[in-house]
């Protein structure tokens, strides 16, 4: 692991040294030219040659470390970096001892330049950068005390030493900051590369997935146009329907996957009649891509409660993808049957477990091992990514397992909240006074809702339309609105929009939808436009109480 980290650092270090090569050697040459005036030529010549040789040696060592990072070569690189800077600073040491004040200033700049080079250019590897700084650190600490040879006071030397320590501390800090910034930049670049590669894979998958049902649509449409046989025409029509469902599922998956990637996939729990919701799967089959719509056989364990709070729309999406996975290996004529069993998770009363298993058309479990398709295509990548994203939003766990008979079985386990019975003393024990406005164009519906509310000891005022609701909100104070979504003239959506766009204090009042619509897409639409809850007709007293608790959180106890 350490060798791999070193090799990554070495690659970045070579790039930094290459970028700095011309400027670095230009400054080195200029420095030696300047100090050549007070010093012997042979000293400057040998020091310059020594710097060039050690610089070349470091490139050779870095090339070796890129291929094989061993402890010996790493130590050799550190020694070479320290040696190069020491040779470079030998003239500075001599000038500091024998030179005048102006030349001392020049060589002090050379020492600072050495430290700057080590803390910035050589910061890709902290150990290499610090080793290169060691000669500069030692000389910077030595310079103030060497000044005593020229009649400097002890106090002046001590102050100069303190200043040198502060300067060196800054350079060491800069070394670590530059190293951290480079690692963060490298991680960001790698993340961008991974995102680009994922985008390319996604586009490739999309190209494959769009063309497959599109070819089926075009081919079977042409065959349907030319055939005169009724049975053959029905076969082509069935294949066209399957291809259209596949494209519909694909479009929804792309939209959901984009929403999940951007953090817009929202978890909207509602109070659900669990048994009715599962039984509805039999009447509203899952749109499984690539196969004829399967026959759904729901099974519900006795311990499953009647009501619970979870997001039925997201659950349905997960069940759709899990059903596709289970049926992906199915072959043979006839419609498949899919058993969806719902039970409480073992030992848990706050988690539901759904198990999906495919069966043959006759209703018995398939006995022979399934044969995996030779080319399943890239669709599983998209479906798996979306399934993981949805499950993560719901706090659920999903798995596709291989049964002993080699068939596929899918499972999803998700948290839910059991709906408690309303308190015997009514809502007054929880809220004190709670005032609701019931909006419905049908008097019998209003009467049922109002009586249920009053049985919970909640005040209820009835109005028959959207405009009356707005007028009533302006005249009196309410805590909650129960709004029918299907009304003539001003429907529920228009009423909600008028409430939310109002500048009055009641613009943010909680609004719960009352509707006979049970389609998952319609329910999701209602929650997305700003409603605080969702109730389907006919109403249940416990479901009503649960939605009220969710839409109007009770005040904290005194």
UniProtKB/TrEMBL annotation:
Q: In this protein, which residues make up the domain named Response regulatory?
A: 435-552
Major enzyme class: transferase
- SMART domains membership: HisKA, REC
Q: Fetch the PROSITE patterns from UniProt.
A: RESPONSE_REGULATORY
Q: Which of UniProt's keywords are assigned here?
A: Membrane, Phosphoprotein, Transmembrane, Transmembrane helix
Q: What is its EC number?
A: 2.7.13.3
InterPro entries this protein is in?
Answer: CheY-like_superfamily (IPR011006), HisK_dim/P_dom (IPR003661), HisK_dim/P_sf (IPR036097), Sig_transdc_resp-reg_receiver (IPR001789)
Transmembrane spans: 26-54, 75-96, 125-145, 157-176
The protein's name: histidine kinase
Pfam family of the protein (one): Response_reg
Give the modified residues of type 4-aspartylphosphate. Answer: 484
Write one Gene Ontology MF term: phosphorelay sensor kinase activity
Could you read off the lineage of the organism from its UniProt record?
A: Bacteria, Pseudomonadati, Pseudomonadota, Alphaproteobacteria, Rhodobacterales
């Amino acid at each position: 692991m350490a060798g791999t980290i070193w090799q990554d650092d070495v690659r970045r270090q070579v790039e930094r040294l290459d970028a700095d090569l011309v400027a670095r050697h230009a400054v080195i040459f200029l420095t030696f030219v300047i100090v050549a005036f007070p010093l012997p030529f042979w000293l400057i010549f040998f020091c310059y040659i020594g710097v060039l040789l050690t610089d070349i040696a470091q490139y050779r060592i870095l090339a070796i470390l890129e291929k094989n990072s061993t402890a010996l070569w790493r130590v050799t690189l550190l020694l070479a970096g320290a040696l190069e800077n020491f040779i470079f600073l030998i003239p500075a040491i001599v000038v500091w001892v024998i030179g005048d004040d102006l030349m001392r200033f020049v060589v002090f700049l050379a020492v600072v330049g050495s430290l700057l080079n080590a803390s910035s250019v050589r910061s890709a590897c902290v150990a290499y950068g610090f080793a290169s700084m060691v000669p500069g650190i030692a000389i910077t600490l030595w310079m103030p005390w060497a000044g005593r040879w020229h009649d400097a006071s002890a106090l002046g030397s001590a102050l100069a030493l303190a200043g040198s320590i502060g300067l060196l501390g800054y350079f060491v800090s800069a070394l670590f900051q530059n190293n951290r910034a480079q690692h963060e930049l490298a991680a960001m670049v790698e993340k961008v590369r991974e995102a680009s590669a994922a985008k390319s894979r996604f586009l490739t998958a999309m190209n494959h997935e769009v063309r497959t049902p599109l070819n089926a649509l075009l081919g079977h449409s042409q065959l349907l146009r030319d055939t005169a046989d009724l049975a053959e025409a029905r076969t082509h029509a069935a294949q066209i329907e399957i291809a259209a469902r596949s494209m519909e599922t694909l479009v929804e998956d792309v939209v959901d996957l984009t929403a999940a990637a951007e953090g817009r996939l929202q978890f909207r729990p509602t109070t659900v009649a669990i048994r009715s919701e599962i039984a509805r799967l039999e009447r509203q089959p899952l749109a499984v891509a690539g196969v004829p719509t399967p026959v759904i056989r729901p099974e519900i364990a006795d311990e499953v409660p009647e009501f619970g709070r979870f997001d039925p729309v997201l659950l349905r999406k997960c069940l759709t993808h899990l059903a596709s996975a289970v049926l992906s290996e199915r072959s043979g004529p006839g419609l498949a049957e899919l058993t969806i069993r719902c039970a409480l998770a073992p030992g848990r009363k706050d988690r539901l477990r759904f198990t999906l298993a495919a069966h043959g058309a006759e209703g018995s479990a398939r006995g022979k091992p399934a044969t995996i398709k030779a080319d399943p295509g890239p669709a599983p990548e998209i479906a798996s990514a979306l399934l993981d994203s949805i499950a993560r939003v719901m706090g659920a766990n999903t798995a596709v397992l291989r049964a002993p008979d080699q068939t596929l079985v899918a499972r999803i386990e998700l948290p839910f909240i059991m709906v408690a019975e309303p308190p015997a003393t009514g809502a007054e024990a929880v809220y004190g006074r709670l005032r609701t406005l019931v909006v419905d164009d049908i008097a019998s519906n209003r009467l049922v809702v109002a009586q249920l509310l009053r049985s919970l000891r909640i005040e209820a005022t009835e109005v028959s339309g959207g405009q009356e609701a707005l007028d009533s909100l302006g005249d009196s104070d309410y805590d909650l609105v129960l709004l029918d979504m299907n009304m003539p003239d001003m429907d529920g959506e228009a009423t909600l929009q008028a409430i939310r766009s109002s500048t009055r204090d009641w613009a943010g009042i909680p609004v719960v939808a009352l509707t006979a619509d049970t389609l998952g897409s319609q329910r999701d639409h209602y929650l997305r436009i700003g409603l605080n809850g969702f109730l389907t007709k006919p109403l249940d007293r416990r479901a009503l109480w649960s939605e009220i608790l969710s839409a109007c959180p009770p005040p904290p106890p005194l």
